[in-house]
Fold these 2 entries.
Entry 1:
Amino acid sequence: MNGKIDIAASLSADPPNNQAAVFFNAPNPSRYYTDFDGDAKSDFTIFRPNTGIWWTLFSKDSSYRAINFGLSSDKIVAGNYDGDGKTDVAVYRPSEGVWYIRLSSTGEAKLQQLGLTEDIPVQSDFDGDEKADIAVYRPSSSYSYILQSRSNSILYEKFGTAKDIPAPNDFDGDNKSDIAVFRPSDGIWYMLKSKDGSFSSIKWGSVSDVPSLMSLDH
Ligand SMILES: [Ca+2]
Ligand SMILES: [Ca+2]
Ligand SMILES: [Ca+2]
Ligand SMILES: [Ca+2]
């Protein structure tokens, strides 16, 4: 990709289907929010790994968009990084530890190094400036590394264990995501509330469950 962005010229040549594609819609608005046209409604979007093309069906006018951005080995990290109310196409490349973000406000690609191959991307708005923060969770050390968009400084916090699933979200309602994990071995969520720094846990789930990162009030 090398920061180069190609927008497919003919959208009718290859209409999207669900084969060999990653489909995602409407999970947690601060993490994988898929409102690419900024009308406050999620847009159906797929990423087709073998071509690296993102296909989006815009909710505003039912038009399509195809953008070539990413490799099959990349992880999807869509989010609103520039705070313009529209989701930005973005991928995390584990082999490089580099985030590639296509800013919706300018159409330009932003590259940011943060993370190792083993890390799990957990982008979310942790500092409450309505811009997603680039962030990773490192299972081997249980550290979260957050590049706060407000201050451009890195916050790191040890929270969780190697077998936990990172699940940051705003649980205490202060519009800042809280560092949190779900522990499959006991079905308990553990969270560090951003509002007052307090620790909290709740048993909601059982062994082998997977946390849903859907925001229920969206
Ligand atoms: Ca939309
Ligand atoms: Ca944006
Ligand atoms: Ca932020
Ligand atoms: Ca919070």
Entry 2:
Amino acid sequence: MGYNLRDRKLLNSRGTYFGSSGSDDESYDSDPDFGTPARRPRTRRSMPRAAGIRIPGSGGENSSGNLTGNMERMWSGLHPRTSEHRRRLIEINRRRKRTFSRVPDVAITKRTVLSWLISMGVVSENEEVWYLDAPWGNILGEGKVTREGIVCMCCSRLVTVGEFEAHAGWKTNKPYQHIVLAESLLSLFDCQIEAWEEKEEEERRKFNHIQPAPKAVDTSDDACMICADGGDLICCDTCPSTFHPKCIFMENLPQGDWLCFYCVCKYCGTARGILNKCSQCDKLYHCKCGGEKLDLMNRASTLFCGKTCKKIYERLERMVGVRNDLEDGLSWTHFQRRGQPWTASCENDEYTRVECNSKIAVAWQVMNECFLSTMDRHTRANIVQSIVYNCGSNFTRINYSGFYTAVLEKGDEMISAASIRVHGKMLAEMPFIGTRGRYRRQGMARVLQNCIESFLCSLKIETLVIPAMDQLTGMWIDKYFFARVEDENLKQALSGYNVVMFPADVVKLHKTLSMRPDLNQAPPEDNED
Ligand SMILES: [Zn+2]
Ligand SMILES: [Zn+2]
Ligand SMILES: [Zn+2]
Ligand SMILES: [Zn+2]
Ligand SMILES: [Zn+2]
């Protein structure tokens, strides 16, 4: 008996999707999570300055230079750098926090980690900060936190976090760990962790676990994985994915069970025996089918289907959080949300992890300004948000775990952000790229686009695909040299990948990547082939 196609009606009519890749789109959607009216901030009593704390330029009646006197008594018994200590500080800060309100998100003019901390209510605007050379050490600089940066007391100028450290005459690569709130002595690094642990941040990064309705007979998806439409679909017998036969170029319906391309070995197409999942391309494979000495190459935690995926993965990971400086004070970096450390990782890793997560939170605010909130019709997953936070799912088509976010910054300020995912040597996708309203029409998206293409080139990725709204298709073709996906061979090749799907009125464009020497920058990548 042959396979019976199942007619699946979509729950909602088409139109809940918002087409992407519109860097010039003018729509503005304020962050609904911060829509509550701000309470009037209560004037906070400033903390009496402890005797013995030396303030640069204050004359220095007491030059012992350490936290002594009241402050020391206050904090004695708290051993620095233990989780218990941090927990107590956070607890104190939480109580304190109730005395001031969050800043409404629409009032944010610059998107920085500081503005995120303020909008999350973890740091109050104009809060006094000190730069300490070591935990509980000397105060080397004084300033006030604003949404735009830190107002440095030594020069009364608005500076970045890194510049504030330089003005304090110190150099570490971890300024957030050395800048503390004068009132609570909680470091900005601790504040980053606290903001990340807030419930609304936690909500944004949750795994999209899609469960069928109770007593549901049919647990398959209602939308084709390739074209997002409903209708007569062939259902995978292992996972909930469904497809139009024509969308996967299937001419004859299979006899009996059928498994989709994410449920079989990518080499032999069967599902017998032990299958491993590649950490880079997310496809399953048999070790023996890989053709290379996969067992020798792979370690237990990260498995790869082959040498190419391993190389791509390692290069992407190595560059996470590494800032690439460009002209005019601009820089670009790619980030990815980092989970809890698996092992007792070193302090460096922890700093990078917290930095990545903070930048992802800021990138989400930028994306949320650029794109309307888009719900998946069937699963109700928030697509843009889940992509920025690289949320996984048991539904392949909304499994966004492999996404990275590339951002363009000027100083500490985030200007543009883009989502990129590499599926393997053949293909990368970029479903979203957006620039904040006040920076549009200044070529910012182009700078970021060039950096991304150049970086993908260095990874030797062959093709980049993007979805484009109809009215922007011309721009992508004329100015960025993309082309419509029309070639049947390419269409067929693309149908084997989990590319973010958009409704039919969004045009799929592609570009063959090649090294262009005139691009703005080349990332510091070695050539080790
Ligand atoms: Zn200064
Ligand atoms: Zn389809
Ligand atoms: Zn499947
Ligand atoms: Zn196989
Ligand atoms: Zn792979």
